[in-house]
Amino acid sequence: MFNNNMILVVIPARGGSKGIPRKNLRLLNNKPLISYAIETAKASQYVDDVVVTTDDSQIALIAEKFGASVVRRSKELATDEISLDPVIHDAMIQKEKQAFDEYDIIITLQPTSPLIQSETLDKAIEKFEDFSLDSVISVVDDRHLSWGYDEKNHRYFPNYIERVDKRSLPKSFRETGAILATRRNFVHVDSRLGTNIDIVEVSREESVNIENYEDWWIAENYLQKKRTAIVVNASDDIGTSHINRCLSLASKLVFHDVLFLIDEHHQLGVDIVDKNNFSYKAYEDEGDLLKYLIEYNPQIVINDILDTSEEYVSALKNEGYFVVNFEDLGMGSAIADIVFDDLYEHDLGEQNVFTGHKYFILKDEFYYQPPKIITNKVNRVLIAFGQFDSSNFTEKVIDAILTTNYEGRIDVVLGLDYEGIEELISKYESNTLIQIYRDVPNFSEFIFKADLIFTSPNKSMYEICSMGVPTICLCKDDRDVSHVFANNKNGFINLGLGDVLESQDVVDEFVNVVNDFDLRMDLHKKMLSIDLKNGFENILAVIEEEYRKFEFNKGLNQVLS
Question: Does an H or E element contain 383, and which?
Fold first, then answer.
């Protein structure tokens, strides 16, 4: 009841829907479509009674199951041609006879608008605070540049005076059909609207009205939308690979809300996320981070910050979040719901740990790059040892190549943390065949143009593999050695620890690969036989499966508690 007004919600749901057969009974995100309207109405703080008018016994059964009363409508009121006016009038009369009383406000709530919220329904009801108001309808702002057609002169004309950006146009509202609320004395067989009409504006999401399968798909994606918080950092010390992975992940979560949380002391990370136009908050410390998480209230928290503590992950779990970590070897990994590590191919025996190349997410630029075409001659060599090159393998390889009779170009891509860049440039500035770059934004172009690559077994080996460019690897440390993907079976020549290699070892392997077209073609084919373009899908499949278990167990605990 609102201001002593008795309120009846009528939900029309016939069984003979044509666009989507048996639409009202179909499961939308695991619930019958009609159940959403019933639950919305019953959650209102003002609605007194909820009734479903139907000609279908199965719809009646489901409606009663979800707590609505039911009135049966005649066959004459269930045809395709009949409007809703007589249907709502008939339901009102039947329900009033059952209640031995009259209602004051009658609300039509369409079951085809499953995303409408009870708060929105209450806002519509609150409009009747104005006693002069007759009716309220739900609308969505639908301003756009539109055109009309002159039937008499057979010509088109603009429905606007000045061609401006859509946001600069005056508001133009479209009825969503979700809510039509009116005072009882205006509910007739041929009309439900009074003369003094107000609107309640709804969001684009709430405006979805299911008329066809495309609408159904959109509604289901909205209902499955999750709030996801991504905790990640980037700096000269950490590098940018973690934040690049998270940006690629976020760019593919198109039907989910994503908020980045960045350590304010790592300005590079803040700048990168800001440049990519994702929503973010910069936190000062772990306490600040947890405060932002509680405010955002995500269902899923993704951590790409390397090793986590047990205390940190426990704090997330205590808030009820589903926790996904990347490359986490810390104590927190044991209690995270999922841990992904794409660089390790080993089975660690932990049920929550998923390892290997199938969980690597390529940067977007690698999805549209074509495979490398292997030619008889090596004309271009790329040297790229990643973010850190403390042993200066870059210079070691350049010097080794220069002792051979190779006359092609050498591209050198250095990481942000490379020390001695000025000395390196000075040493080779007289050699016009050597071009030195730092932290390039389009690394895939350098890979594509290269005929042979020198690198270490880091994440770039997956990017290289996706394009099929023959590669010689030098390991920087034991951790690199453990990245076993860089082996001959996968198309890589791995020379092991670079610190123990003699310069001549590098020369011999380089000359061998340059002069052996068949070897390079074999390496190329092995690389391209590996699927590296479905990392996101593989990660998503694991998250969806584990999240289902997480939700099931949470629901079970609630039932048993």
Answer: strand 380-383
What kind of architecture, by CATH, is found in domain 365-528? 3-Layer(aba) Sandwich (3.40)
**List of residues 6+ apart from 339 with CB closer than 8 A:** 324, 325, 326, 328, 333, 350, 352, 353, 354
Whether residue 346 is predicted with pLDDT greater than 80 in this model: the reply is no
Domain boundaries, the chain: 7-143+171-212, 225-362, 365-528
The C-alpha atoms of residue 208 and residue 220 are separated, in whole angstroms, by 10
Q: Quick one: average pLDDT of 329-338?
A: 95
CA distance 33 to 19: 14
- Length reported for the chain: 561
pLDDT at 554 over 90: no
Helix (H, G, I), strand (E, B) or coil at 431: coil
The answer to whether residues 202 and 115 touch, using CB atoms and an 8 Å cutoff, is: no
Name the more confident of 471 and 364.
471
61 three-class SS: helix
Comparing 225-362 with 365-528, is the CATH topology the same? yes
User: How does residue 81 score in pLDDT terms, banded at 50, 70 and 90?
Assistant: confident
Query: CATH top-level class for 7-143+171-212?
Result: alpha beta
- Amino acid at the residue 42: K
First-last CA distance in the chain = 34
Q: Which CATH architecture has domain 225-362?
A: 3-Layer(aba) Sandwich (3.40)
Residues 330-342 have a mean pLDDT of: 95
Question: What is the model's pLDDT at position 20?
Answer: 93
Contacts 24+ apart (CB under 8 A), 262-265: 262/232, 262/233, 263/233
Q: Which amino acid is at 472?
A: I
pLDDT(464) > 90: yes
17-63 pLDDT, tens digit each: 888 999 999 999 999 999 999 999 999 999 999 999 999 999 999 99
Q: Is 20 buried (19+), middle (13-18) or exposed (0-12) by CB count in 10 A?
A: middle
Q: Which amino acid is at 368?
A: Y
Q: What are the backbone dihedrals phi and psi of residue 75, each rounded to the nearest 5 degrees, phi first?
A: -60, -35
